[in-house]
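Box 4.2: Ligand-aware structure prediction
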Amino acid sequence: MQLTAKDFTAMFRQIATRIEGERNHLCELDGHIGDADHGIAMEQGFGAIVKALDTSEPATPTDVFNTAAKSFLNAVGASSGPLYATAFLRAGAAFKGKETVAIDEAPSVIEAMARGVAERGKAELGDKTMIDAWKPAAIAVEQAREAGKPLSEVLAAARKAAEEGAEATKTMVASKGRSSRLGERSLGHMDPGAASAAIIVGEICDFLARS
Ligand code: ADP
Ligand code: MG
């Protein structure tokens, strides 16, 4: 099974639909420890991606992710804008020169995106950011692959790690981004960026599992 640019476009459409449905929840989470705009930022960002992909119809998987990076960055003024733009650029680079991506290779997208967010935002595990969902998901992909696990188990492990990572941010004090100003008062709340990261990882895994 090989994934084409059209498949990755469909993947973005699926993520955008889910994010749209979670917009209010994500804004609510951001309302507790930030400025209540995270759901709007993510909805606008993924909405812009879908629109750009529909009009430009990129030819390769790399073009899809590069188009996503550009449109997300242009649409999102919040700090998630450059973080996800870099994540998409790294995912595009991971598939460079390929017309199609073998389904077994596709979980690399999670590792590449986690790398992009880390490079751009310089957050560490425990800082109460989206890294607390992305990094465990990337590590889960790496370990499951090294252990020779089948695709379904690689994806299940990634999804679980992202969800647990997002959940764990409730016990963390924010030390990066807007919510770091709250100090101890950020305790007890899930980080909105980690929540949306777990949603995105979940949709990627769901899409790949059904491909
Ligand atoms: P803003 O804080 O500008 O309003 P958003 O509300 O869209 O931006 O996103 C907030 C999320 O961004 C946080 O919940 C956190 O997960 C993430 N974030 C902020 N700074 C960083 C960083 N340096 N590295 C990784 N993620 C970050
Ligand atoms: Mg915000």
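In the box above, the bound molecule is magnesium ion. The chain has one domain: 2-210.
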